[in-house]
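User: Could you check the structure of this?
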Amino acid sequence: MGDGDGWANCDAGHRHWGRYGAAGVLPYCMDPDPYVLLQKRSRLSIGGGTWGLLGGARHSHENPVEAALREASEESTLDPATVRVHWLSHEDHGGWSYDTVIGSAPTRSEVRPRSFESAAVEWVPADEVADRKLFPAFADAWQRLRRSLYRVVLVVDVANVMGSRADGWWRDRRGAAERLRDEIAAIDGFDGVPGAVADLCYPEIVLVVEGAARGVGAVEGVEVVAAPGSGDDTIAGLAARRAPDEHRLVVTADRELRARCEAAGAAVVGPRWLLDAIRRSCST
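Assistant: Sure, the predicted structure tokens are below.
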């Protein structure tokens, strides 16, 4: 039992489990079509006999991702380290909230029940989820959640983003690029991703550097690619989708590069989108 275990009432007068809200995880695996990992609730738990997400009460010291993955590891043999988190979908009930953490797993490894709350745990083809007897709240959310079974690769045109700042970046291009890298690495989730249904995105981040910034190294969560020649050519090459569940989002204000990236199937946002995300991150 943790400090979040207990009942809470929302503003609508409904009773929910989780004094600080609750969170669940929706892992998916492309094999080659999407499968999702679902829990069949035991008769001893709320909604016994229905299928839904591994998850439960969030404790006071946890963020939603931590809570969802901890609960999943308590209720099943799922190894949280195998889930790469891509999205967070937030439902605010007023006084109580539920967060769904969506991430991918590399394989459909065997997962078994671990606690009395789980009658079964199974990888289910996404096309067959609606055929199951679903936990009512999950049934209401499923069609929306299904649209988030993909990951975003964020490709940043570093020279272009730095050029939109009036901070003397040109005096030390490498230092400015390193500062930008560290600011991006510190962002805990991006909102306003084009086409997104979920509230926060946790993308794979690739920075493309050129010229005097070529010596910039990677940090945890941020890959750095040094363009051997034209930065635009490297970015345009990275813009193409590499896997069925992979969407590319390029950050640049260059019109010609935007057209090349969109022709390759990527979405494009301007530097202001990224700089606003940095500003919000710095203010929290």
